[in-house]
Fold this protein.
Amino acid sequence: QVQLVESGGGLVQPGGSLRLSCTASGFTLSEYSMNWYRQAPEKEREWIAGIGATGDVAPYPDSVKGRFTISRDVAKNTVYLQMNDLSPEDPAVYYCNRNVFWGQGTQGTVSL
């Protein structure tokens, strides 16, 4: 059974950093591409990062380019999202995704 469990969200000040984790079970990361999405209140869900089965990273969208980095640890079956220089435009629920499977999301908040 495929499961994705996110963790690492929290409250930071502008300019701060968060590192999100997505621990996968029921499959091996080295066989699937993985993605991070986020959804802010009253906004559509936005794709923000992707990493292929071979570890290749997709180009980031402009909204996070240069600030967010996706990575993975196949031994731990975990995908990470390092988020730096967070701004008040970044607060959202962050989701881990594989195909049709989604995690429960983790909240990232930036204090004003």
The chain has a mean pLDDT of 95. Strands lie at 3-7, 10-12, 18-25, 34-39, 46-51, 68-73, 78-83, 92-98, 101-102, 106-110. Residues 36 and 96 are 5 Å apart (CA to CA).
